[in-house]
C-alpha cells in the first residue's frame, strides 16, 4: 500500500525550476532518507507531502488523497502527516506536557486526562518524563527537539516528515535525537521521510535512500545497494 505517490511532479518558484519530473512512491511503513546538496529541492519535496508547499503540475497522492483536488481537506492531511522541523517551534509559554497534549485536546477532541496520560507515555519514549512540568526555555536544543517529536506523535500520524531535524543542534545533542528517531522508525506501521545529512542514521535505519541534485531525483535505491556503490 502506498502512502505517498508523486507522478510527473514539477515545482516552479516564479521562473526557478525547483522540482523536475519527480516520480516517487513511498509505501506505508517505509523509512526513506532524502539526501543531496543544499538547494537541491529536498525541503521543497518534503514540504509538498503535507501541503506546506503546492506543486506546479503533475499528480501528488498522499494517503489516498489527491493534493491537487480542491475537495481534499488539507488540515486532515496535516493531521495524518506530521512534520518535525529544524527549529522546534514549541510553545514557549506552555509546559512540556501542555506542548504535547494540547493539540490532541483541541484537534482530536481527547479529554484532558487521556491526552495527558498519552503525552506522559510519549515523554517516556523520548526520555523526558522528568521534564513534563518544565518550560521549553529550560531545555537544551536536543531536549526541545525530542519534545517536538513527542508532540508530532501525539497526533497519531500515519506518516512523519523530518526536515533536517538535527542540523540546528550542538553535536553532543544529535545522538539522543537520532536514537528517538530510531525508536519511531522501529514502529512498523509508521512511514518516515527524513531529510538529513546524518549518513550513519541513513545506513542504519533507512529502507531506501533518495538522492537529489538540482531539483531532480538522481538515485532512488534500497539502502544496501546505495552503500554498495563503488
Ligand atoms: P534543499 O532543501 O535541498 O536545501 P530547497 O527545497 O530548500 O532545497 O530549495 C531548493 C531551491 O529552491 C533553492 O534554490 C531555494 O533557494 C529555492 N527556493 C526554496 N523556497 C523558495 C521560495 N519560497 N521561493 C523561491 N525560491 C525558493
Ligand atoms: P532551509 O533552512 O530549509 O534551507 P531556507 O533558508 O532555504 O530554509 O528557506 C527559509 C524560507 O525561505 C523557506 O520558507 C523557503 O521556502 C524560503 N526561501 C528559500 N529560498 C528562497 C528564495 N530564493 N526566495 C524566496 N524564498 C525563499
UniProtKB/TrEMBL annotation:
SMART domains named in the record: AAA
Which Gene Ontology molecular function entries are recorded, alphabetically? ATP binding
The chain positions of domain ABC transporter read: 4-230
Among Gene3D superfamilies, the record links this protein to: P-loop containing nucleotide triphosphate hydrolases (3.40.50.300)
Key words of the record: ATP-binding, Nucleotide-binding, Transport
Keyword Acetylation appears in the UniProt entry:
no
**Which SUPFAM superfamilies does this UniProt record tie to the protein?**
P-loop containing nucleoside triphosphate hydrolases
In its keyword annotation, does this UniProt entry include ATP-binding?
yes
What protein family is recorded? Belongs to the ABC transporter superfamily.
Q: What name is this protein filed under?
A: Amino acid ABC transporter ATP-binding protein
Source organism per entry reads: Loigolactobacillus zhaoyuanensis
Amino acid at each position: 500500500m502506498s502512502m505517498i505517490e508523486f507522478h510527473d511532479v514539477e515545482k516552479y518558484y516564479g521562473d526557478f525550476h525547483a522540482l523536475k519530473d519527480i516520480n516517487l512512491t513511498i509505501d506505508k511503513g517505509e523509512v526513506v532518507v532524502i539526501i543531496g546538496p543544499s538547494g537541491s529541492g529536498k525541503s521543497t519535496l518534503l514540504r509538498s507531502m503535507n501541503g506546506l508547499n503546492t506543486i506546479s503540475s503533475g499528480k501528488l497522492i498522499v494517503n489516498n488523497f489527491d493534493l491537487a483536488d480542491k475537495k481534499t481537506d488539507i488540515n486532515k492531511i496535516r493531521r495524518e502527516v506530521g512534520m518535525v522541523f529544524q527549529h522546534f517551534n514549541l510553545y514557549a509559554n506552555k509546559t512540556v506536557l501542555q506542548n504535547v497534549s494540547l493539540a490532541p485536546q483541541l484537534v482530536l477532541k481527547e479529554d484532558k486526562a487521556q491526552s495527558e496520560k498519552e503525552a506522559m507515555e510519549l515523554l517516556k519514549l523520548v526520555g523526558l518524563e522528568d521534564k513534563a512540568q518544565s518550560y521549553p526555555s529550560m531545555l537544551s536544543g536536543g531536549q526541545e527537539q525530542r519534545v517536538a517529536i513527542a508532540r508530532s506523535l501525539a497526533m497519531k500520524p500515519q506518516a512523519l516528515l523530518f526536515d533536517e531535524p538535527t542540523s540546528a543542534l550542538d553535536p553532543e545533542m544529535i545522538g539522543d535525537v537520532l536514537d528517538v528517531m530510531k525508536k519511531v522508525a522501529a514502529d512498523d506501521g509508521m512511514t518516515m521521510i527524513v531529510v538529513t545529512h546524518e549518513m550513519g542514521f541513513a545506513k542504519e535505519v533507512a529502507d531506501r535512500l533518495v538522492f537529489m541534485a538540482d531539483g531532480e531525483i538522481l538515485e532512488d535505491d534500497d539502502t544496501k545497494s546505495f552503500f554498495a556503490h563503488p
